[in-house]
Amino acid sequence: MTESLLSRRFATMGRHEPLFYNEPLHLVSAHGVWLTDISGRRYLDAYNNVPHVGHCHPRIVEALRSQASTLNIHTRYLNEHVVDYSEELLSRFEPSLNRVLLTNSGSEANDLAFRMAAQHTGARGILVTDHSYHGNTTLLAGITTGLRTHEPLAAHVRAFPVPDLDAAENRDRDEQEILQEALEQVQRAAEELVAAGHGVSAVIMETLFSTEGLPRVPEGFVTGVAETVRSAGGLVIADEVQSGLGRLGSHFWGYQKHGLIPDLVTLGKPLGNGHPVAGVVTTGDLLEEFGSRNEYFNTFGGNPVSAAVAHEVLRVIDEEQLTQRCAQLGDLVAQRMQQLVQAHPRLGAAKGSGLFFGLSVFADEDHRQPDGASAKALVESVKEAGVLLSRIGPSGSVLKIRPPLALSQQELPVLLEAVEQAVGNVLQAP
Ligand code: PMP
């Protein structure tokens, strides 16, 4: 069954979209943090941030069923669901971020944010971090540095590195010096854009730098980048598609962890718990200006079903106190990961925040050579133990652990023990 499904998939959809695992997982159902495959085997999902409040959460399913059986229509009619949801969503932002445009995917949201920034600044130049991903439109393929794409970096784009205090070359250096050097590179990239006649329209940063491998950035880096870009006339876009909506425990949005207030915030994946909901949050002035020049219309973005589902996601986060639980579990995880790092010389610092964390894997005990092959073996071995996770970073050497927030304290040991066991198997001393 799985074999023939795989060949039918390749025959119809091609091979462009790689499947996870040496032997792809054929899933049939899910509940909470548990996924069930075709053979009836259950896996704890420690990878997916889309089913934010848990797979097939009964309240989300009911919100979808109830609204889908009442009214679903495009967005050019008056309907309270989209307005109710927009008010509720915006109440979770700083007062200046008080307008939202809803879309269907993170890519659409980022594309729109760049369009707004270009119109506001009159410039086209874009600054982006090394080894990042922000979506799949033609514009975004031209700024992609962290995923294989045919498109070269577009002429109006410059990438700058994100410093990692844990990297071998930074270990014995002063944090201020690392920060200064990193900000000088941003300044140079901005100057290049101006010199080439593109000007600076915006910088985009994913505020936990997930695709980059969850580097531990110097204090003041994110705000420093923002200041540099604003002095060059550009706007600041925070991409919260992965880190937003309470996942970090300590803060509802990743940019808040850095003390930054962006000009545009882009949202996606977890907003609809699996139903496609995304959007751009911005200031009244920016949206007014954009609206005065464009008739922006999005057929599905903010339709009554999407809005009802996304609204229910916010209610569940509040009522089940998921952000608070995320902070508590995140502390437990951080302690256990620290113990694991101490016990295994080839593991580097535990990274991340709340229920978004990573473990660096190295080929050597001095942590100079990132080891993507061992990280891959660990992901496979953890899967054999019944837990799903993935890996990130320029060498694919950082384990990416990002379970739905529905993970309970009772389920946490299943995840931790699978990781510990796999580390024991894969990283034994030679
Ligand atoms: N930004 C980030 C940080 C992402 O991780 C992704 C998706 N992986 C996107 C944007 C694009 O979102 P979508 O796939 O919904 O278009």
UniProtKB/TrEMBL annotation:
Coiled coil: 165-196
UniProtKB keywords: Aminotransferase, Coiled coil, Pyridoxal phosphate, Transferase
Domain of life: Bacteria
Claim: Coiled coil is one of the keywords in the record: yes
Species, as recorded: Nesterenkonia rhizosphaerae
Family, per entry: Belongs to the class-III pyridoxal-phosphate-dependent aminotransferase family.
Name the record gives this protein: Aspartate aminotransferase family protein
InterPro entries, alphabetized: Aminotrans_3 (IPR005814), Aminotrans_3_PPA_site (IPR049704), PyrdxlP-dep_Trfase (IPR015424), PyrdxlP-dep_Trfase_major (IPR015421), PyrdxlP-dep_Trfase_small (IPR015422)
